[in-house]
Records
---
Amino acid sequence: MKRTKINLLLERDAGLEDVLVNGWVRTRRDAKTFSFIEINDGSALKNIQVIADATLPNYDDIRKLSTGSAVAIRGVLAPSQGGGQKWEIQAKQVEIISLAPESYPLQKKRHTDEFLRTIAHLRPRTNKYGAAFRIRSELSYAVHHYFRERGFRYIHTPILTGSDCEGAGEMFRVTTMDLAAVPVIDKHTDYSADFFGTEANLTVSGQLSAEMFALSLGDVYTFGPTFRAENSNTRRHAAEFWMIEPEMAFCDLEGNMDLGEDLIKHLIGFIMDHCPDDLELFARFVDKKLRGTLDNIVNSSFVRLPYREAIAILEKSGRKFTYPVSFGLDLQTEHERFLTEQHFKKPVILYDYPKSIKPFYMRVNDDQETVAAMDILVPSIGEIIGGSQREERLAVVEARMNEMNMEKEPYWWYLESRMYGSVPHSGFGLGFERLLMLITGISNIRDVIPFPRTPGSIDF
């Protein structure tokens, strides 16, 4: 007999004579002639109640079921006789797949997020994390659906790379060499003996590769894991994280900002429509202001503001910030949240940043001082998107690389793309985990990714 997921049973309009459900026991309590068993299979926030009658042949074993035990239930889906649920299962057969010992760590009480990170292999069984990772799954689907409906092509960009897209050098090296006997020539590592014959790293972005396909296929996107060896233990940073990165040919900065705003609104609206029960959990128990925040983002026109004007607003705010504010310095989270939560009270798109704080590939504006970069800032999070119109002019790209003392040889293919049919094009990166933090109200990135990778932590 084919099993049915609990979420499908809970949505039914009529009962069923015979159902098979598998799941894990959340609670069990005994009456005189039967047991109430609450089970969940991970498909829904709500459990389903099973009534196991004392006449069942293995009833003595059923009464030994503990929290965390796994069972298979066959029975009749019938209207519930108790309050709080529409349906219950009147068991005809209870198969005990495994019994969890009393040491099972997820008992019927609230656990701290810090504790649950130490048992990341079990925390998806809790209400909060089950909801978070169901939303993550639905949000992943929504990303692909959004771009497919708009004619974008999905590109699988490399995870292993010889290029540093951001130019910051915060990359994880990948090698097959014996670390106890690394060959050295003139005090420099000799990578000619390594697997690729040159230095290799885990990528920080799929952008440069996606650009190549945008200049061939038009509108493309990549969505996958990226890595940054930044020794940061803040609530917004992880060493492994996922990025949504669209690239569009024949698109300027204005079109780039339009897409970023529309994408954020669409994805939030999708989760509000498709995950109401899971979202309600976060609105009730994690962030009481969550509904208002999400409604405001979906229904607002984002403010569009030059970086220079944002600096002026911050300087005149009268606020004493921890980090200094002046033209030529990058904004910090406290500045971004002031603009979105207190000054404008809505999302803000900042654009035209000083070229001195931005990578080589961003298009230089006519003032020769700024580049056509844009960041989208949202309440609670700060920066959630970073992007730009790309520099399509070969001579300007080369000049920028010279300014930054970059070696051109590893980027020969990138420079060649500016020789053969180069066109204006734009793109951005949307931090997937930061979007999940925004949607759920969860305040730490470690709690929206299944197995977080942070400095000093690579368990599981």
Note: The mean pLDDT is 95.
---
Amino acid sequence: MTAKLFNKVVVFGVGLIGGSFALALRKAHAVESVVGFGRSKQTLVHAKQLGIIDSIGEDVSAEVADADLVMLATPVGQMGELMAGIAPHLGPQTIITDAGSTKVEVVREAYAQLGSKFAQFVPAHPIAGAEQSGAMAARSDLFQWKKVVLTPLPENSAVSVDRVRRAWEQCGAMVSTMTPTQHDEVFAVVSHLPHLLSYALVHDIAQRDNRDLLLSFAASGFRDFTRIAASSPEMWRDICMGNRDALLAELKIYIAELNRMSAALEAGDAEQLEQTFLSARTLRAGWTLK
């Protein structure tokens, strides 16, 4: 019988991402036991009933001491405090990883909070998700053929990085590597800015007295553009603050683009607008999500 990749995995945050990670490892027979921690006992009870976790964590020190892998799947704003809480109890062979959507701030917290054990932390970001959250939304196939980015630290051992890579591959993901800075610059453009814009448009409409009338005529274009505004406000608050510098830089570039389009409208420059639309359409038509 082939040995499992992990004997014991501890998941902090048994929601969409953490729960799906646990389910995927279990489906792949890559883990013997999964222990879950979270803010809501009711959620954890539900996660156990759904077969996401084997047991509900009661004693952090006892559970992380002999864990093979600790997954931090909480909002990024909570990770520093969580790292500080587990650091004194981590076993020497325990690997810590995360699923945070920002990496520079999380890595900074790891250096500050994990102390001498920061080399055991291998940062990661699964490029998968949905508007739904919580244990009910967890799926064993969430990461199938999805990309996962590892942003290893110079202090990480090759063995630790390889085990985290293999964990995600067991989940069906395609793994690539970036530096934390590269990661945050890329995702400021293709993820964080789109979420900010989606929230901004829906918030603008929410402030209007005729919002019900407007929404009654909204169709697929509005639905597609604003779908991501149904995501977790807490999570996206933390992501925006955690990647504030890169996001601000991209927001300024986007504002300049809007100003160019505004100027074309004011000038009645139909050709400029059409050229902008054509350029965007060409790029979008040639892009495929893999």
Note: The chain has a mean pLDDT of 94.
